[in-house]
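Human:
I keep going back and forth on a fold encoding question. Comparing notes only helps if you start from a blank page. Show me how you would write down a chain together with its backbone fold. Write it directly below this note and I will take it from there.

Assistant:
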Amino acid sequence: MSKKNPDKTQVSVEVHAEGKPFIDKSLNERIAQKAYEIYLNRGRIDGYHVEHWLEAEKIVLSEIGSKDFMRQWLKTVVG
């Protein structure tokens, strides 16, 4: 299944048999790294991991929506 972004870039999302989306491992790692950066920048206060993750996800996915970022990311993934 694929969905189009407003800027016309296409994002592909695979779905497991259980109906849960499969997120590319490198995308998941980017989100995790960004969430950790948010955690550090906010003073390493525990208990906000969900908020940090959701904010990181929003940031990373908005970056992916950029055509220039998508081209750069594809070069690193595809080679």
